[in-house]
Amino acid sequence: MKKKKILIVEDESIVALDIKRTLEKLDYEITNTAFDYQGAINSVLSNKPDLILMDVNLGKSKDGIETAKKIKTFEDIPIIYLTAFSDEETINRAIQTKPVSYLIKPFKRDELKSNIMLGLYKNEEIEDIFYDENLLLIGENYYFNKKEDRLYFKSLPINLGSKEVLLLKILLESRGQIVTIKDLESLIWGENSISSSTLRTLIYRLRTKLEYKFVETIPYVGCRIC
């Protein structure tokens, strides 16, 4: 069985070496040990890991949370934060990057092991999903099942009304292109007359279920999915 690859991002070399030795004993492959923001970005680009162990404090460079945010703009890799910071502000910032977990130093080996296993399991679950030709990836773990007419976030279904489903399908079929208000009204309601707010409300409901991501509205023109 192929070893799972882990990137360590830690600015203290002694701590990084200790983590590296622990992971090697657990039979993981270490892609690299990065000590700062740019080193972490370069490491991901050159040898994509299956999981990242990210220290929050990276010395004078951008911190681990900013590093994680940047990485998530081009790769969806599970991240576990390792840090001595437990203040509410730092934790709330970290939560925005949707990490697997947030471990406070010093942590036990078994605690690290179990969290790594959880992160790798979740990652495999998502990757396996996309072998299905009926699935359209929207982005950031959102995808649409064409056969079921159902929206998912990771493996969790998101309930959509029939017209929300139709709107999403229309936008996905014309992905990147603006679909005009007139065309949307015609495709969704046919010849039935609707008020000016009906379409706006429908678009708003779909956007909320996608966490206000992906669907871009162009006032008085239409909308598109990016």
Number of domains: 2
CATH hierarchy: architecture of the largest domain:
3-Layer(aba) Sandwich
Classify the fold: give the CATH topology of the largest domain.
Rossmann fold
Helix content: 40-55%
Number of strands: 12
The portion of residues forming beta strands comes to 15-25%
Distance between the termini: 38 Å
Return the average pLDDT rounded to an integer. Answer: 88
Shape: elongated
CATH class assignment of the largest domain: Alpha Beta
Which spans of ≥5 residues are poorly predicted at pLDDT below 50? none
Give the assembly state of these chains: single chain
> Order of strands across the biggest sheet?
2-1-3-4-5
Order of helices and strands: EHEHEHEHEHEEEEHEHHEE
Helical/strand content category: alpha/beta
Organism: Arcobacter defluvii
GO cellular component, one term: cytosol
InterPro entries: CheY-like_superfamily (IPR011006), OmpR/PhoB-type_DNA-bd (IPR001867), Sig_transdc_resp-reg_C-effctor (IPR016032), Sig_transdc_resp-reg_receiver (IPR001789), WalR-like (IPR039420), WH-like_DNA-bd_sf (IPR036388)
Pfam families: Response_reg, Trans_reg_C
